[in-house]
Structure prediction request, 387 residues.
Amino acid sequence: MTNHELARARSEVQALGADWALLTSPENVTYVSHYEVPVEFGPLAQLNYGPVMALFGVSEPANILLANRYYAGSARQQSAFEVVDFGILEVFEPFHAQVSRDNFVAALRQTLRQANLGNGKVKLAIEERTLPLIALRVIQDEWPHVEFVEAGSALARARLIKSEREIERLKQSAAVVNIAHKKLMELTRQAGKSEFELWAEITKAMHERVGGKFLIAGELVCGPRNKSVSPGGPIDYITKPGDVAELDISPRLDGYWADMANTMIVGAEPTDLQKKYAQAARDSFYAGVQMARPGNKANAVFAAANDAYDKYGLKLGHYAGHGIGTTVNEAPWFVPSDETVLQAGMVVCIETGAYSEEATGKCEKMMVIQPSGDPDIFPDFAWGTPV
Prediction:
């Protein structure tokens, strides 16, 4: 099967004049290799010495993944890259030599030597944000004539346009969000549940849909805390009739994220003020959607979404959305300063909202920008506050 993402990355790295690329961020390694690089936390984050890395040549067929031995099995299953593995701090084998740094260095040296570049001048694209110092030293030792070039902007350009494979995965992840928002709609028909209870029921439904463990980020906020953007939650708050419940949730599935937000009224009919905020958010959302067409600029989407609030005497509380893919929040960004020209095949989130203690309106869904300009918006959950 053709790896379209790797081909796009190669093309962008070649435009930098680089011979090879060594990627070290989870999002970019996932993108080129198709291995869902774990987001590290807990024991492995401390016992592991170095990150998962992907090395590939611009004109050479070599594609190599460097991963610790606990990740290597999954990497070989998911990716067509050759996998070089290394040991970590072996606390489960306490009589083994505890040499995680040495293991990582040896594996990185093996990876670089497999590239078989000799001692000539090499131009290597790297990610300065995530390349460890120890890796830099090993590279300079193995390739004394190496010249570095920053790869971050090139990979960001590669990731702007999604392949059919990526769009399929983004829609699969969005289907899990769909479950969450529909479940919260059911749960908020009556007041009296805590945010903890609501979150537990929502995430249980999501896990049952997926059939296993996966990563979930986001927040659930009920009541007066909705006056702030992203106040965090859940907390031990018991819902009351008339509370606004806001859910902004992002799961990661097969390396790709979804991001959706909605507001609903708990156990009561909405007030006129709550209807006003909800309608303003929807008008803003669809104004942004209509502007998210090939040839328009990202900042034009922000302007349209922002201006839609004027007739309500309200203000957009943040940016008007963002791209999404192997990170939950990536280029383009719908802000006044982003002049990225939108293209067919981009997948973006239109995200609008205004906030107060008494009323909050927030709308966010994903869409594929189509060649025709007609939006492909997903998933299909209903906006929560009746207007």
